[in-house]
Amino acid sequence: MEKLNGLRCRECGRHYPAAPLHVCEFCFGPLEVDYQYDALRGRVTRASIEAGPPSMWRYRELLPIDGDVAVGHHVGFTPLIRAKNLADELGCREVWVKNDSVCHPSWSFKDRVVSVAVTKAREFGFDTVACASTGNLANSVAAHAAEGRLKSYIFIPADLEQGKILATLVYSPTLVAVSGTYDEVNRLCSEIADKYRWAFVNVNFRPYYSEGSKSYGFEIVEQLGWRAPAHIVVPCAGGSLITKIWKAIKELKTLGLLDERSRTSMYAAQALGCGPIVTMIKNDSDVLVPVRPNTIAKSLAIGNPADGYYAYKVAKESGGSGEHATDEEIVEGMLLLARTEGIFTETAGGVTVAAAKKLIERGVIPRDESIVLCITGNGLKTPDSLQDRLEAHVKIKPSLSAFDRALADLKSQTS
Amino acid sequence: MSVLVRIPTPLRSLTKGNAEIQAKGDTIDSLVSDLDRQYPGLKERLLDESGELRRFINIYVNQEDIRFLQAKKTGLKDGDEVSIVPAIAGG
User: Fold this and answer.
1) Which of A129, A229, A273, B12 is the most buried (most CB within 10 A)?
2) Cβ contacts of B60 on chain A, cutoff 8 Å
3) CATH 3.40.50.1100 fits A80-106+210-385, yes or no
4) Cβ contact B65–A183 (<8 Å)
5) Which residue from A25, A134, A292 is facing B91, i.e. has the nearest CB?
């Protein structure tokens, strides 16, 4: 069945064929996949989705692939957890954690976008995939390229966390460490993408790639029993995820799968050391002022976010807001989620928890309404951020009396 | 001032396919005018109706985003390299 009309410019509305294009030739606006919703309505139902596989591909009719899924068959459908302990701690009635820190195979939500992009790269006949990355995307592109037997070139800022470098190299890509910030890597990749005929997942494949993030939003709604939460807090780097979760909710309404009257407010979470989107929201300005990142949340360290303008618009349009978190608050956020729910997220997840906590304490998010926190990456990738923060464990000789003494010491310390 | 300007794919239909062109200007503003004189229509693609740089275009002088410099008033000297780059997604 024909489900795509090709691509369409988000700004001026010009139409383009479904090709590896990402920018409107006339106004430079981003191109977006254009679906034939009339053809999908009535064909895609709650029942048809529920009959699908336990992965993001249960929503494949709403994703921009034409043929078979090429890679990442098991991506997505991650747990949506009722976080009772965290809710108690925050003084809230209903808190949920959408936990993509356990997304298969590379432990972040990036598997959702990459499996779509790499499948599309195969459809268009490319033999090489590439990306500019702050880490999670690098891991995912390298992993899916290996699975799809494609060559991969991965460009990263040279100062990336060791864990993320190793978790890329293990898949045998060509890893290029660039001495510069992510924004500089990004600019370089834009020029490389112009010169070499590669499938750059976040450059010339961006319209397809970014659609994969919608599955995160679809899953939240389906896992809540086809109900949208009142509030969703989303970590923002380039600003794409928050716009695609919002798009997912709107699409489900368009297709009659979600009550049109339901209201969801979207909140952007960013580090104080790199928060240009939240700054736009706080200043109520639609002009993005780029920043030079300085934060431990390296996976969110994009000073010139391409979708910043749209992320700002989503927060405004949905009646949501945004909040910054300091490095100290980010670590506290990671520890809070681990202590209350047993979930170890990376720094970006700490940003989400910290920002949500502040929004709740400020009364921006009411305590008696449903709240979903978007946890998008795994803590084992960024242990560096906690290295100096956690107390040493008890060390003893292998004897019962040594343990008795240690236990007595511990008890006297806490009493 | 003569500088090297890198042209992204979406604009090459206007520059006869050239990926790099030499142009003159003391500032980004005057450079854009010279580009438009050499390749009519370029200015309209780079600037919106009010004469501001379009939202999704980034311009770099020697790898530095001009928003960290003096934006359109950023000065140019002989041998500078200017890149015109569309905004791209995060990672």
Assistant:
1) A129
2) 187
3) yes
4) yes
5) A134
pLDDT in tens, A278-335: 999 999 999 999 999 999 999 999 999 999 999 999 999 999 999 999 999 999 999 9
Residue A1 reports pLDDT greater than 60: no
Range A41-72+109-204 has CATH code 3.40.50.1100:
yes
| Contact call for A237 and B87, based on CB within 8 A | no
Q: Assess whether pLDDT exceeds 80 at residue B90.
A: no
CA distance A39 to A46: 16
Instruction: Please list every residue in chain B whose beta carbon sits closer than 8 Å to the beta carbon of residue A28.
Output: 10, 45, 54-57, 86-87
Q: Does B41 touch chain A (CB under 8 A)?
A: no
CA dihedral A193, A195, A196, A198 (to 10 degrees): 20
CATH number of the domain enclosing B19: 3.10.20.30
Nearest chain B residue (CA) to A31? B88
Sheet containing strand B20-24, edge to edge, reads B20-24, B2-6, B81-86, B57-61, B64-65
Check residue A392 and give its pLDDT: 76
B22 vs A: CB within 8 A: no
- Measured between alpha carbons, how far is A377 from A354 in angstroms, rounded to an integer? 15
Same fold yes or no, A41-72+109-204 and A80-106+210-385: yes
10 Å CB burial of residue A312 (0-12, 13-18, 19+) is buried
Annotated domain spans of chain A: 41-72+109-204, 80-106+210-385
Residue A33 CB neighbours (<10 A): 19
- Residues of chain A with pLDDT > 90, as a percent, come to 91
* CB pair distance less than 8 Å for A29 and B56: yes
pLDDT for res A388: 82
β-bridge pairing A199-200 and A174-178: unpaired
Q: Return the pLDDT at B91.
A: 63
Quote the mean pLDDT of chain B. 92
Q: What is the mean pLDDT of residues A230-234?
A: 98
% of chain A exceeding 70 in pLDDT: 100
Query: Does a structural domain hold residue B91?
Result: no
Nearest CA in chain A to B90: A238
**How many Cα atoms occupy the beta-carbon half-sphere of A19 within 13 Å?**
6
Instruction: Answer yes or no: is B66 within a domain.
Output: yes
B1 falls in which pLDDT band (50, 70, 90)?
A: confident
In angstroms, rounded to a whole number, what is the distance separating the alpha carbons of residues A381 and A109? 14
Residue of B nearest to A305 (CA): B90
**B50: containing domain:** 2-86
d(C-alpha A279, C-alpha B4), whole Å: 34
Q: How many domains does chain B have?
A: 1
In A101-150, which ranges are E strands? 128-132
Mutate to test the interface with A, among B56, B67, B81, B84 (most CBs of A within 10 A): B56
Which chain B positions have a beta carbon within 8 Å of A237's beta carbon? 90-91
